[in-house]
Amino acid sequence: CIRDRYDAARSAASPVDLAEDLHLQWVRELPPPERAWPHQWDHRGKLDFDLSYSPVVKDGRVFVPSNVTDSVTAYSETDGAELWRAYADGPVRLAPAAWEDRVFFISDDGRLYCVDAATGAEIWRFQGGPSDHRLLGNERIISFWAARGGPVVYDGIVYFAAGIWPMHGVFIYALEADTGEVVWVNDTTGAEY
Fold it and tell me: How far apart (Å, rounded) are the C-alpha atoms in residues 124 and 105?
């Protein structure tokens, strides 16, 4: 199984060997990403987390998040054919996590989604903030507690955070990957919300 930068530690060290003779297999033209923070405060590359697509490959499928179509799309690793597309209620800016027969992804709508890796059918979803309060952010309607850290799965637990403005509270969760039930939550980070 190959994930974003290979493992939960995002080490980028994989035991999988590359083929001796590499050549182009297929091409997919995708629209340019729409960055959350298109205007930098300086030219040092701050906040470049959503500058490009971050695909994840597992079991013959390439899972590609999109902050343009607010979705994750699964393509065939063999020929690039679109297999399915799962939508969120906001931009999906970061790499999903593929674990067993599931794909997990977060969105600016403040939710963590769990979908079936083979079909894209939703298994469960979890709201990271205390309510579904929305606001105008990054030229889009997003959650007051947008999820902007890619999910990580380790030992059957999926970890993610919601909230990017500490003054409104940041919520860090550990959930059962199978069921979405809360293992623990840190809701003490940041100010009173």
Answer: 11
Backbone φ, ψ for residue 121 (5° rounding): -65, 135
The whole model's pTM is what?
0.88
Distance CA 142, CA 56 (A): 24
pLDDT of 165 higher than 50: yes
Q: Rounded to whole angstroms, how far apart are CA atoms 67 and 113?
A: 15
Q: CA torsion 129→134→139→145, rounded to 10°? A: -10
d(C-alpha 185, C-alpha 116), whole Å = 25
Split at pLDDT 50, 70, 90, the class of 46 is: low
Q: Is the pLDDT of residue 1 over 50?
A: no
In terms of Cβ atoms closer than 10 Å to its own Cβ (0-12, 13-18, 19+), residue 143 is buried
